[in-house]
Amino acid sequence: MMVAPNAPLLFFDSGVGGLSILGPARAALPTAPIVYAADSAGFPYGTKSEAEIAARVPALLGRLVERYRPRLAVIACNTASTIALQHVRAALDIPVVGTVPAIKPAALLSKSRVFGVLGTDATVRQPYVDRLAAEHGADCTVLRHGSAALVQLAEAKLRGAPLDPLVARTALAGLLDQPGGDRMDMVVLACTHFPLVEAELAAAAPHPIGFVHGGEGIARRIQHLTQGQPWPAAPAPGVAVFTRLDEGVNALRPALSGYGLDHIEPL
């Protein structure tokens, strides 16, 4: 398939969490044109039903692909990926990369054989997580906890708002207070928002805990799928698209600019 050098990479999330996926991808492909789409009108996804997400995400991605003609789409959201990835792949005629919980690397790295999966409520209850845990962590105790408040903390951090350290402490306690939690030495950040508050989570931990997420692996996957394709000689300003523009989006402008997203548009 012939690809134009200015055909962008499309990143999609409910909010700003997908920036944790965009960052490593930009580092790997520094001149890649970028469109970052946030479903601010549908945010947050983690408290929505599977049926809502399975209907909403493919429809929005269809509109985005029609408008921006990307060479590849990344669902930079664990909740949307675990629920809607197959629906999106069936609807689009471009490669689609999903974001899945980094359970395999956590199982490989855990010395105590106890690790946690910290995500949204919608993600941690998915059968997909059961399958990953059974396949890669069969000899491990796998603890799970969903935290909607931690998603809001990440959004607040990128808006430059004051942060309540109790939010990170409470999210971690949801894992640590379970049987075996005192031996937990790794945590899978199974929501793309959560790497944005990794420092806050590490500060809240009562003992050293390692954190893993999928950003670097997705960057490698994008490189593989676009191997041999032409890219612009120099980076151009990226585009951030929101399904609802409000004051919260305006507050994100400095953070978005830090990821090379200098133009903001409504969908």
Summarize this entry quickly.
The chain is of the alpha/beta class and 267 residues long. It has helices at residues 19-28, 50-68, 78-91, 103-109, 121-124, 127-136, 148-158, 165-176, 198-204, 215-225, 247-251, 253-258, and strands at residues 9-13, 34-38, 72-75, 96-97, 114-119, 141-146, 186-189, 210-212, 238-242, 261-266.
Keywords, please?
alpha/beta, 267 residues, 4-stranded parallel beta sheet, 10 strands
Low-confidence stretches: none
* Average predicted confidence as pLDDT: 95
Rg, alpha carbons: 18 Å
Quickly count the helices.
12
If you had to describe this structure to a student in words, what would you say it looks like?
With 267 residues, the chain is of the alpha/beta class. The protein contains twelve helices and ten strands. Helix 2 (50-68) crosses helix 3 (78-91) and helix 4 packs parallel to helix 6. It is globular and about 55 Å long. The two termini are 27 Å apart. The mean pLDDT is 95.
